[in-house]
């Protein structure tokens, strides 16, 4: 027990310490004129699916889970969101050239079709983000229609 | 004994946490450094700009050459070689100079280069299935680029209807060697167009 005490104290200090490392929150009240749903006037049924299953990591607005208040979970999330937005940011959709929109749409369809998105680590906690076959189909069909309209 | 073991476990936990913390931090640092990696190709860009008045832009020729290396890696179903070729193409694209083109061409080329860079970057860190997916989109970019920049050597636009909704690619040779299926369907495809 003599050794255990200092170790526990160190552990606590480290844990408490990292709580003070700031993370950037991906949240804003701004309305983006370039938003995918706005620009394409996406029908409500598809818009809801995209907002529930994609927007947390692929837009400028994240609905954070409670554990984002705790490190190192917050770092993990921050990393995911940064990476997600780099690949595809629905909030900035209209800033992409038609060429890039086209490839983004293709990638969206293939990722959904192959169950690569939403990420397993995300749906593990966000059970409502899991896509049913019907939902997958409606996303794919909708993305196809957006592609055809480019 | 048990105290020792418990101690060990706690120490391991601390080390694991420190490790997680450190890797998260170092990941961020790593990303920042990425943008400065292009120094090598910037040098060759300087050299290349000497002859930009030529019809065949040397950088677009390098893009075509890198694209062909990538295509050959996919024909051979060699993921590692495709990763390397993707990275090479990415760095070539990042030093693409637009000066010698009209403003309309510049706008178009800039979009092409931006899009192609993204695909090359993905190919540089993906598995074979993804590499082929991005190669299909990359092919459109390179084809459109060549339509503006011209090409020094004759290119053959080839097409296999079996890949997705149909997959096109460019080749230096007439003979069909399929980059989407490799040895599984090496001969699938036909020459659609000759690009001179």
What report would you give on this structure?
The complex is a heterodimer of chains A (150) and B (196). Chain A is mainly α. Chain A has one domain (34-149). Chain A has eight helices and no strands. Chain A has helices at residues 4-18, 36-40, 44-53, 55-58, 73-87, 98-113, 120-123, 133-149. The mean pLDDT of chain A is 90. In chain B, helix 4 (79-94) packs antiparallel against helix 5 and helix 5 (103-123) packs antiparallel against helix 6 (128-149). A three-stranded antiparallel β-sheet of chain B has the order 2-1-3, covered by helices on one side. Chain B is mostly helical and 196 residues long. Chain B has six helices and three strands. In chain B, 31% of the residues are buried. The A-B interface holds A 1, 3-4, 7-8, 10-11, 14-15, 18, 71-72, 75-76, 79, 97, 99-100, 102-103, 106-107, 110 and B 3-4, 6-7, 10-11, 13-14, 17-18, 20-21, 24, 27-28, 111-112, 114-115, 118-119, 133, 137, 140-141.
List keywords for this structure.
A: 150 residues, mainly alpha, B: 196 residues, 6 helices
Short structural description:
Chain A is mostly helical. Chain A contains 8 helices and no strands. Chain A has one domain.
């Amino acid at each position: 027990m003599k050794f255990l005490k200092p170790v526990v104290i160190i552990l606590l200090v480290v844990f408490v310490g990292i709580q003070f490392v700031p993370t950037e929150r991906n949240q804003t009240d701004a309305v983006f004129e370039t938003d995918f749903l706005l620009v394409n006037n996406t029908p409500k049924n598809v818009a809801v699916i995209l907002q529930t299953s994609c927007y947390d990591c692929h837009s400028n607005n994240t609905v954070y889970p409670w554990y984002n208040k705790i490190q190192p979970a917050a770092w993990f999330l921050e990393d995911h969101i940064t990476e997600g937005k780099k690949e595809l940011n629905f909030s900035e959709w209209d800033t992409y050239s038609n060429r890039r929109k086209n490839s983004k749409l293709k990638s969206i369809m293939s990722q959904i079709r192959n169950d690569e998105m939403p990420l397993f680590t995300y749906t593990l906690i966000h059970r409502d983000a899991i896509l049913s076959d019907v939902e997958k189909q409606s996303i794919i069909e909708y993305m196809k229609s957006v592609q055809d309209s480019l | 004994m048990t105290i020792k073991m418990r101690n060990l476990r706690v120490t391991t936990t601390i080390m694991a946490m420190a490790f997680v913390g450190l890797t998260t931090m170092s990941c961020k640092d790593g990303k920042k450094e990425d943008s400065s990696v292009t120094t090598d190709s910037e040098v060759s860009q300087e050299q290349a700009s000497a002859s930009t008045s030529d019809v065949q832009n040397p950088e677009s020729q390098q893009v075509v050459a890198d694209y062909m290396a990538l295509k050959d890696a996919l024909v051979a179903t060699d993921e590692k070689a495709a990763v390397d070729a993707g990275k090479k193409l990415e760095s070539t694209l990042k030093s693409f100079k637009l000066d010698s083109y009209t403003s309309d061409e510049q706008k178009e080329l800039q979009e092409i280069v931006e899009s192609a860079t993204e695909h090359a970057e993905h190919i540089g860190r993906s598995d074979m299935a993804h590499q082929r997916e991005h190669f299909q989109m990359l092919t459109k970019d390179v084809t459109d680029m060549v339509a503006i920049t011209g090409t020094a050597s004759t290119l053959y636009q080839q097409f296999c209807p079996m890949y997705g909704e149909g997959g096109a690619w460019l080749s230096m040779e007439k003979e069909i060697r399929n980059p989407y299926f490799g040895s599984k369907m090496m001969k699938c495809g036909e020459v659609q167009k000759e690009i001179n």
